[in-house]
């Protein structure tokens, strides 16, 4: 059975992504290309959890109207999707990249949840 292995990140809308990333870097000492990056110690190489600002006008969280999205890491995306579909959960979409595989669902409150299975290193090339 597929399982969630951890929090991949929290993505949220802001007016100025660069200013928000700079604030976290300059005030809290955390940063990275996609926002505050928290590396894993015992996971795949280059694995991390994100606190990542998105432009306020992004439609990446659609169809949810919430100003944030949750990313959850999974160990087997195909099995997770099959389990969810068998329970009647609609899969909004899927996408495979060199660094990982993605699928999206909505929770019962309309919050978009991104499921992520890391492949190799954690960073896009």
Descriptive overview:
The structure is a single chain. The protein has 125 residues and is α/β, with parallel strands linked by helices. It has a single domain, classed as 2,3-Dihydroxybiphenyl 1,2-Dioxygenase, domain 1, CATH 3.10.180.10. It has two helices and seven strands. Strands 2-3-1-4-7-6-5 form a seven-stranded mixed β-sheet. A hairpin with a 3-residue loop joins strand 5 (93-96) and strand 6. The longest helix has 12 residues, at 17-28. The chain starts with a strand and ends in a 7-residue tail after the last strand. The model has no long low-confidence stretch (mean pLDDT 84).
Summarize this entry quickly:
With 125 residues, the chain is of the alpha/beta class. It has 2 helices and 7 strands.
Keywords for this entry:
seven-stranded mixed β-sheet, 125 residues, globular, alpha/beta
CATH class: Alpha Beta
How many extended strands? 7
What count of structural domains?
Answer: 1
Contiguous low-pLDDT stretches (5 residues minimum) are: none
In CATH terms, what is the architecture? Roll
Total helices: the number is: 2
For this structure, the CATH topology is: 2,3-Dihydroxybiphenyl 1,2-Dioxygenase, domain 1
Helix percentage range = 10-25%
Radius of gyration computed on alpha carbons: 15 Å
Would you tell me the structural class of the helices and strands? alpha/beta
Kindly, what is the distance between the CA atoms of the first and last residues, rounded to a whole number of angstroms? 30 Å
Q: What's the overall average pLDDT, rounded? A: 84
Q: What characterizes the major β-sheet?
A: 7 strands, mixed
Principal-axis shape equals globular
Strand content: 35-45%
Strand order of the largest sheet: 2-3-1-4-7-6-5
């Amino acid at each position: 059975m597929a399982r969630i292995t951890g929090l991949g990140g929290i993505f949220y809308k802001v007016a100025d992504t660069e200013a928000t990333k700079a604030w976290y870097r300059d005030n809290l000492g955390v940063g990275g290309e996609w926002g505050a990056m928290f590396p894993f110690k015992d996971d795949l190489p280059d694995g991390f959890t994100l606190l990542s600002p998105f432009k306020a006008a992004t439609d990446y969280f659609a169809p949810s109207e919430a100003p944030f999205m949750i990313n959850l890491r999974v160990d087997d995306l195909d099995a997770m999707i099959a389990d969810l579909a068998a329970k009647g959960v609609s899969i909004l979409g899927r996408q495979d990249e060199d660094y990982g595989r993605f699928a999206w669902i909505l929770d019962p409150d309309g919050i978009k949840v991104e499921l992520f299975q890391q492949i190799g290193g954690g960073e896009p090339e």
